[in-house]
Every structure is written in C-alpha cells, then in structure tokens.
Design brief:
By secondary structure, this protein is α/β, with parallel strands linked by helices. It is built from 17 helices and 15 strands. The strands form 4 sheets. Strands 3-2-1-11-12-7 form a 6-stranded parallel β-sheet, sandwiched between helices. Strands 5-4-6-8 form a 4-stranded antiparallel β-sheet. The structure holds zinc ion (ZN). Residues 126, 128-129, 143, 145-146, 148 line the site of zinc ion.
C-alpha cells in the first residue's frame, strides 16, 4: 500500500474557526478520502497551536487559566471538523506532553550540533503578531502583517543557524521543482532565499505560556518554532516525510524556508510538497477581526448542508487562487450544479424507473455514456494529482450534464409507450451512470454520495466498492435490483 501523509497547519486557538480554516481542512479531507479510496495507507493530521502571549493575555482578561482557555477553544475546532465530516486520523495539540517532549529533544539536538546558539536579538517587534521585523520590512514604520505599532526590543535569545542552509535549500528547490506549489508562489520563496537568509530567533525571554527550554529557566521556545514541530511529534517515523503540507499563503514562507532548513539541520527527509492555497474574501471584502466579517461555516450547514459547503469551497475557485465568498455565489452554485443538475438527474431517473418498471430494471446498459467513464477516471486522477479540485468537479459535472442530455434526447417517458425495451435500456444506462457518480463524488460529498449509492439500490459500503466501480462501472451491477428514490438530495434554494 502506498503511504500518504497529509497535513493541515495547526490552527491558532486565539482565532475562531472560520471559512479559511474550513477550506484548508476540507481540501485535505478530500485528498485523504481520495487516497484511501485508491487503496493508500493514509495519515491525515490536523490540530491546534496553543502557545504564545496572545493566549496568555486572552486567558487573563477572561479570568481563566491559559490551559482552560486552550482546552475550550481547541474543542471548537474539533467540533467543527466533526460537523464538516472531516476524517482526520490524529488531532495534535501543542500543549500535549508528547509535543513538549519532541520540542525538547529537537532543541537539545540542534544545540549540541551548533545549529542553535545563544546570542542577543534586537529588532522591531510586533506584540500582536509575536514577530520580529527588520527595519526594511516595516510598512510605514508599522507591522507589515497587522499594521500595528512596533517596538524596539533587545533580549537574550537562542538562534537557529538558518543562514547555514541557504545553499542547501536552493539546491533542494532546484532538484525538486514540485516541492513548492503553486509555481508563482514558489518563485517568490526562491527569490527570498537568494536574497540571503539570516539566523532566526527561536526563543523568548518574557513568555510564560510556552515550552520551557531545557536547562535554561526563563527561556521558552518561540511559538512558531514550537508549532512547526507538530508534524514531527504526531508522525510515526515509518510514514515520514509528509507527502503534502497544505496551508494558506500567509504561512507559506515558514513552511517553504524555515521548516525545510530545520529538517536539513535535523538530517531528516524533506516533505514532498508544500502547497499554499489562496484567500477568501467575504462579499468582496477582506475578512478581518476588526470588521468582524469572518464567515462561520457552521451557520451555513442548516441551509446548504455539509456537502453543499464542501462542494462549493472546492468547485468555486481553482485551488491556489484567491476567491470571493458570497451568499449569492453559494446559492447560484448550489442551485445550478447540485439541485438542478446532479439532484435532478437522480430524481428523474429513479422516478421513471419506479413509475414504469416497478423500481427494478432487467436490462443492461448499452454503454453510450458508460464506455467513456474510464477515460473520465483518468482525467479525475490526473486532476487530483495536481490538487486541481475544481477540475475534478468540472469533469464530474460534465458527466452529469451528458446524462441529463441523454435522457432529454431519448425521452424515455415517451419511448416507454412505443418501445418499452428501448426505454428500459435508456434508464439502465442512466442508472449505471448514477452508481458511478455516487462513487466519484464520494471524496468531496461523502454523506450525499452514500445516499446516492443507496438510492441507486446498493446496500454495500460505498467506500469499499467505489474504486472497483470507478474502474469498471459494471462492477457489482445486478439486474433486477430495486432502486430506492428517497429524499431529495439537494433542495433548490430560492434566495440567498
Ligand atoms: Zn503585527
């Protein structure tokens, strides 16, 4: 079995879970489900980042301990992943003992090797972002990330000798052109490294809420250094290295430069791919805490269903590009693709079979559409390999459209009056396509796909059968099996 290790970033518990977190996690889930369906040995990791002064400050202002705060906030992410049908294999929290142990070991090892050393750090510091900035990086004298005031800070600090890995990193990028994706963001990273790497501060003096540095009281591990190591903590050495690190573009540089430099220092194999997707705006505006316009995916579930949201996120925008989330856009996409196209294909096919053939067909499909499905599978595989989720869904959408057109042309509702056998064959063709579509949509819309599979008359475990049916649409085809037109799969929405 081919192993497949995929990660999301660990999400900072000082943020409320929003559509951006859901986007990364749903994308990772779809890939994980696809690889499992293909027989891969998948390890899908997500979790929460729980240290840093912002947490300590928030806890103090709420009159709780930092641990109480992170327990409560981390749970919100786990609850959302449950609601969104996320199939992660592990959930790591940086406050766990297993993680403290890893961080301590890594720190000691790098210290011994001379890749971590003690010095003094002085630079512009943003308290809010917990980041040091060079004078040249400031935006009009303020933090380039959040725009807040920065202060000059000098303190004793441990440093990671990142500068020693500049040449090795460039060599690695050069030999592994697939490592950083998408291409345009990859080039920015290469240029950044080429412009010269400085050593990075990996500890804080005043930080109380963090992992203490072994043997040096008062120093704690810098929160970003701590966070990156989560991937090592949670991974069994047998499945190292990760096949894909998925993330938003704002943390690409940490994963594209600092993280591989650290792994080089630790003599560990580097991840196969680091992929940064784009950002969502909300109704045309940047989402921010000050505007309070973060889209809460949970609020959309009652109207659009978990699968409606999962589908929209991956279909609407090519993965890697920026996109806009709007209620009108969600409604339009839901209606056109799911209610009017896919849902309608199921509804009309099954209604005709029930009305005219007592719910069961004896005929075999002639193959008009079915014979082309193997070719579609090839395209789907290729698109998944490129993380081109919107292409996967376009390919499947085209199959749905083709089947709807086929019914329109053959008009089995008329045909049944003059040539019942021909009408039965037409519907058998459509039913075979429905079974195939249930399998094909499974990674993106697992719950709806299971419903589709059941409606097509199947009672076996879809996830077990899906690959076989995708490769051979006639696999498990049993003449005379009764279809079960049950609930409407996707109820049309009238207004956003
Ligand atoms: Zn800032």
């Amino acid at each position: 079995m081919k192993k497949f290790f995929i990660t999301t970033p660990i999400y900072y518990v000082n943020d409320k879970p929003h559509i951006g977190h859901a986007y990364t996690t749903v994308a990772a889930d779809v890939l994980a489900r696809w690889r499992r369906l293909e027989g891969g040995e998948v390890f899908f990791l997500t979790g929460t980042d729980e240290h840093g002064s912002k947490i300590a400050q928030a806890a103090q202002s709420q009159g709780v301990t930092p641990q109480e705060l992170v327990d409560r906030e981390s749970q919100k992410f786990r609850d959302l992943w449950k609601d969104l049908n996320i199939s992660n294999d592990d959930f790591i929290r940086t406050t766990e003992a297993r993680h403290r142990e890893t961080v301590g070991k890594v720190f000691e090892r790098l210290l011994k090797k001379g890749d971590v050393y003690k010095g003094h750090y002085e630079d512009w510091y943003c308290v809010s972002c917990e980041s040091f900035w060079l004078e040249s990086e400031l935006t009009e004298g303020n933090c380039p990330d959040c725009g807040r005031k920065v202060e000059k800070l000098k303190e004793e600090s441990y440093f990671f000798r990142q500068s020693a890995y500049e040449k090795k990193l460039l060599e690695f990028y050069d030999k592994n052109p697939e490592f950083l994706s998408p291409k345009k963001r990859a080039q920015e990273m290469v240029n950044f490294v080429k412009s010269g790497l400085r050593d990075v501060s990996v500890s804080r003096l005043k930080e109380k809420w963090g992992i203490a540095i072994p043997g040096d009281a008062g120093h704690t591990v810098y929160v970003w250094f701590d966070a990156l190591l989560n991937y090592l903590t949670a991974s069994d050495p047998k499945i190292w290295p990760p096949d894909i690190h998925l993330m938003g573009k704002e943390i690409f540089r940490f994963h594209a430069v600092l993280w591989p430099a650290l792994l080089l220092a630790l003599d560990l194999p580097l991840p196969k791919k680091v992929f940064a997707h784009g950002w969502w705006t909300a109704e045309g505006e940047k989402m921010s805490k000050s505007k309070g316009n973060f889209v809460d995916p949970r609020a959309l579930i009652p109207d659009y269903g978990v699968d409606g949201i999962r589908y929209f996120l991956l279909r609407e925008v090519p993965f890697g590009a920026d996109g806009d989330f709007s209620m009108a856009g969600l409604t339009a996409r839901y209606n056109s693709d799911l209610a009017n196209n896919l849902g309608n294909l199921f509804s009309r096919t099954l209604t005709l079979i029930e009305k005219n053939f007592g719910g069961a067909l004896a005929a075999a499909p002639p193959g008009d559409i079915v014979q082309g499905l193997a070719g579609k599978l090839k395209l789907v595989r290729d698109a998944y390999d490129r993380l081109a989720f919107s292409e996967v869904l376009e390919i499947l959408g085209a199959v749905v459209t083709e089947a709807n057109r086929y019914i329109d042309e053959k008009a089995p509702w008329n045909l049944v009056k003059t040539d019942k056998a021909a009408a039965e064959k037409t519907l058998a063709e459509c039913l075979a396509v429905l079974r195939w579509l249930a399998c094909a949509f499974y990674p993106v819309m697992p719950a709806s796909a299971a419903l589709m599979w059941g409606q097509a008359g199947e009672d076996s475990d879809l996830s077990q059968e899906a690959l076989k049916v995708l490769e051979d649409p006639m696999h498990g085809w049993t003449p005379g099996r009764k279809v079960q037109k049950g609930q409407i799969l996707f109820q049309r929405k009238n207004k956003p």
